[in-house]
Write a structure and sequence with these properties.
The chain is of the alpha/beta class and 528 residues long. The chain has 17 helices and 16 strands. The protein binds 6-O-phosphono-beta-D-fructofuranose (F6P).
Length: 528
């Protein structure tokens, strides 16, 4: 296609949302009208599915759950007045709590203000708060947010060490929808011990964000934690940014959560339109379907050209991959669906992997996220008449063009600036696109059986560790791994046992492995 025809195609397909000032350009995805027409019946079904979901249908059949993240920003849409009231009240409670913390009306026992927050959570209970903090927190927030989003002991130490002089003024958010995920539970126990080590009573610093009556909720209630906020069973972890999961940390940092909700609501209204060309989420879903042949054959590379949005790709990674990456479709057929998502930020990535994107394996389509406002205030001229922002803008255009010329497709989302409304809108845009795409490819976007399988496997390894160590304690002399496995009733699991023991040995926790480390099968083990 020559430049004039491309310019025409750009204009034909350009979507613009006036209220949000958001543009979506799918002109560099090379679908034609016949392709769009062929997907119309699937889209009709997707729009109908989405309408049912928003009305409270059981959209997550495996878990027998409604899917209601859209109600969080438009509570009147909730299927019952009780739910509407609950959403409204929770938001009010969050705002009141954040204000009291910021003004010092709620303060720690030994300080006049909370200065910092440790947020403990994983997956959907971390990625949204992390993305939003990076995108929207002021340079000097009223409370500084730190995350424990893993089970790495050294990572936990690092956060606690950084805060060792301000632990007495650090609020702890423990965020877990289920209230039973091992990582946040373990992180909470470690942090609690650190508080005890400083003679601080954890309950006076701790806030739980979890489902009512979960183990975490019960613990927080029994111990009299500072506050508890509810998470609803009809909100999935990866779509929970607009629930207490995301709103509590955001409000505490002084982010305008109402504006974020408004932006999401406005985008929801726009993405409810049952017309592909006039619905930005449908245009994304269409482009993804085209890009990956409806089978995820190409990866989605997300390139925000704005530092504050660099966690967007990581956020989308969970939203897209946990939602769409499914072995079976809704009819039980094995389909192995999904779309792989990765990315960091432009132009930084141009000096890393964009070389391969331009010339290497053509197994992706790109999504550029462009922000029109360079910075608040005037810009210095780097060259006559040229600012850093002009360079960044030029890098984006240049990369988009270079990719296209080499038959690599791309989508471009443009927002006027990074603010709570546009961030809320971006989240809502992708949530809806994932929901529509899931319907196009007929998968349940709202469960994650694969993750559950991994969790079970991990639990069985820990169980094996307990059994093996109990047997080892009774042994008077060194024993071979095979023998130990047999005595523990786990002859088939010698490799797992070897790895358990090697780890414990490396941490000098009462296990000694002896012999040739190059030949694990020949090692003997004893309790020290
Ligand atoms: O909030 P929870 O229940 O601790 O779960 C954390 C994360 O674990 C998962 O269940 C599986 O990874 C995610 O869907 C969720 O965001």
């Amino acid at each position: 296609m020559d430049a004039r025809a491309l310019w025409q195609r750009y204009q034909n397909w350009l979507y613009f949302h006036e209220g949000l000032g958001l543009y979506l350009d799918v002109s560099r995805m090379r679908f034609d009208d016949a392709f769009v027409d062929s997907l119309r019946p699937k889209f009709d079904k997707a729009f109908a599915d989405m309408a049912q979901l928003e009305k409270g249908a059981i959209a997550n059949p495996d878990e027998n759950r409604m899917v209601g993240h859209y109600w969080l920003r438009n509570p009147d849409l909730a299927p019952t007045p009780e739910l509407t009231q609950e959403i409204v009240q929770t938001l009010e409670q969050i705002e009141a709590f954040a204000e009291k913390v910021q003004t010092g009306a709620i303060h720690p026992p030994r300080a006049s203000r909370f200065t910092d927050i440790i947020s403990i959570g994983i997956g959907g209970s971390a990625l949204g708060p992390q993305f939003v903090a990076e995108a929207l927190a002021p340079d000097f927030p009223p409370l500084k947010l730190h995350f424990i989003d893993n089970n790495d002991p050294a990572g936990i130490d690092r956060v606690i060490n950084h805060l060792r002089n301000s632990l007495a003024s650090t609020l702890v958010l423990v965020i877990s929808k289920s209230g039973g995920t091992p990582e946040p539970r373990n992180g909470m126990i470690e942090v609690k011990k650190a508080y005890a080590g400083h003679n601080l009573e954890f309950a006076q610093y701790a806030v739980a964000i979890t489902s009512v009556d979960s183990n975490l909720d019960k613990l927080a209630k029994d111990e009299g934690w500072l506050a508890r906020f509810p998470m609803y069973d009809w909100v999935g972890g990866r779509t929970s940014e607009m629930s207490a999961v995301g709103l509590v940390p955001a409000a505490l940092q002084g982010i305008d959560v109402r504006a974020m909700l408004d932006g999401a609501k406005e985008m929801d209204d726009a993405t409810r339109v049952p017309d592909v060309k006039n619905n930005p989420a449908a245009l994304l879903a269409l482009s993804w379907y085209f890009g990956g042949n409806g089978k995820g054959e190409k990866d989605m590379v997300v390139l925000p050209y704005k530092d504050s949005l660099f966690l967007f790709s990581r956020y989308l990674q969970q939203l897209v991959m946990e939602s769409l990456g499914k072995e079976k479709d809704l009819d039980g057929n094995v389909v192995h669906q999904g779309i792989a998502v990765y990315g960091n930020k432009g132009s930084t990535d141009q000096h890393a992997y964009v070389q391969q994107l331009r010339e290497g394996v053509a197994n992706f389509f790109a999504t550029f996220i462009e922000v029109l406002e360079d910075r608040q205030g005037p810009s210095t001229e780097i060259d006559p008449g040229v600012t850093s922002g002009d360079y960044l803008s030029g890098f984006l255009q240049g990369t988009r063009q270079a990719l296209y010329e080499n038959h690599r497709d791309s989508i471009t989302v443009t927002i006027p600036q990074v603010n709570p409304r546009t961030v809320g809108a971006l989240i809502a845009l992708y949530e809806r696109a994932v929901g529509l795409y899931a319907s196009l490819v007929n998968v349940n976007a709202y469960h994650q059986p694969g993750v559950e399988a991994g969790k079970k496997a991990a639990a069985s390894i820990l169980d094996l560790q307990t059994r093996v160590l109990a047997v080892l304690q009774k042994e008077k002399t060194p024993i071979s791994l095979d023998e130990l496995a047999k005595k523990a009733g786990a002859s088939e699991q010698v490799e797992a046992i070897y790895k358990i023991l090697r780890h414990i040995h490396a941490n000098q926790r009462g296990v000694v492995l002896q012999g040739d480390l190059q030949k694990p099968g020949s090692l003997t083990v004893s309790a020290s």
